[in-house]
Write a sequence for this structure.
């Protein structure tokens, strides 16, 4: 049996959201969803802690649409978890700010995607921008660690300087990510994804700002970044199934926090099988744990930092090519267009590997209760 110590659990506590974001990665809805209740969440927290869990990312939908959001935080804090809350920032009242500030090891990741016009358009509600910026300031005044997450597409690329100024003025880091065209509503916006030239301009802009001390970070694989812009974090790879996995609002355990919209990647449900049992014995998790950077193909197989990067988002590779070992499409595109020189890459292997696809029954077979 493959063993692995959990580090981070990504728990989407609801699929209900008060906004209608155009690139929502889990297709959140306005209607109330049937979510795990507090006793079930306490059980999940205890079981996740028993296999090593140290950090929980509490996301949605929108966390604060749940009236029992505080009990959710307490369930994981009582088990010693560090808390990261992902929110759109529109429902964090002064009372809620005060309660969040009571947790010693807690930070909040707020989504903000540009200036007033673009953010409100992307989020599907007029006034969302003003509410979110106001709450970022309130959280900072309360001494809460805040990070702004922005998804950059063609529509809001011109707003990057605005977000950089906000990073300076509110003293918060800003993490720019690119559209994931494979999950949730992402496929609907695929034509609006940045092209290579736009990514290069964004990379250079962030690089120059970081040289001046700005706290902006572009979330792309390290091979495509300036060396000094690669942050010293645990790993650019999320550690899926080895130290990280996701749980959906209704209890399905899956490979990562953004895979919840794909039922074929569920390994079981915590209402039927204990989380720790699923984590340790699910066939899909065991299969993926047997893989490492030596199994990567295409440009990822030749990358000089593949051991550290892990091939970036393996979910994206699987969704685009039905192959968990396939090359990451962004890096492959950069290489195919000549932006990655041969002399920085490992030599081409004389015998190519077979694609590392999983049979359907291996992917979806849950562990027996």
């Amino acid at each position: 049996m493959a063993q692995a110590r959990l580090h981070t659990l990504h728990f989407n506590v609801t699929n209900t959201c008060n906004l209608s974001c155009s690139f929502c990665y889990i297709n959140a809805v306005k209607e109330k969803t049937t979510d795990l209740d507090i006793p079930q969440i306490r059980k999940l927290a205890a079981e996740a802690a028993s296999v090593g869990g140290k950090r929980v990312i509490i996301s949605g939908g929108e966390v604060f649409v749940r009236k029992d959001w505080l009990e959710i935080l307490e369930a994981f804090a009582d088990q010693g978890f560090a808390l990261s809350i992902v929110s759109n920032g529109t429902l964090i009242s002064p009372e809620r700010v005060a309660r969040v500030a009571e947790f010693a090891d807690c930070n909040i990741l707020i989504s903000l995607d540009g200036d007033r016009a673009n953010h409100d358009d992307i989020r599907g509600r007029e006034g969302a921008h003003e509410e979110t910026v106001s709450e970022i300031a309130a959280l900072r005044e309360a001494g809460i660690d805040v990070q702004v997450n922005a998804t950059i597409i063609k529509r809001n690329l011109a707003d990057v300087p605005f977000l950089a100024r906000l990073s300076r003025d509110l003293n918060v880091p800003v993490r720019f990510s690119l559209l994931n065209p494979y999950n949730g509503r992402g496929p609907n916006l695929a034509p609006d994804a940045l092209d290579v030239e736009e990514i290069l301009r964004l990379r250079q802009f962030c690089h120059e700002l970081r040289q001046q001390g700005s706290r902006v970070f572009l979330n792309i694989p390290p091979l495509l970044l300036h060396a000094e812009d690669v942050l010293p974090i645990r790993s650019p790879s999320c550690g899926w199934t080895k130290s990280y996995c996701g749980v959906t609002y209704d209890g399905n355990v899956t490979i990562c926090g953004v895979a919840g919209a794909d039922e074929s990647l569920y390994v079981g449900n915590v209402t039927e099988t204990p989380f720790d049992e699923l984590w340790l014995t699910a066939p899909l998790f065991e299969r993926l744990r047997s893989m490492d950077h030596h199994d990567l193909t295409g440009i990822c197989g030749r990358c000089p930092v593949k051991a550290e990067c892990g091939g970036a988002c393996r979910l994206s590779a699987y969704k685009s090519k039905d192959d968990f070992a396939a090359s990451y499409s962004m890096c492959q595109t950069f290489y195919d267009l000549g932006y990655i020189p041969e002399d920085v890459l490992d030599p081409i292997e004389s015998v190519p590997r077979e694609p590392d696809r999983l049979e359907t029954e291996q992917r979806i077979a849950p562990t027996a209760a």
Notes: Confidence is low (pLDDT under 50) at residues 359-369. The two ends are 17 Å apart (CA to CA). The first strand starts at residue 8 and ends at 12. The chain is about 35% helix and 15% strand.
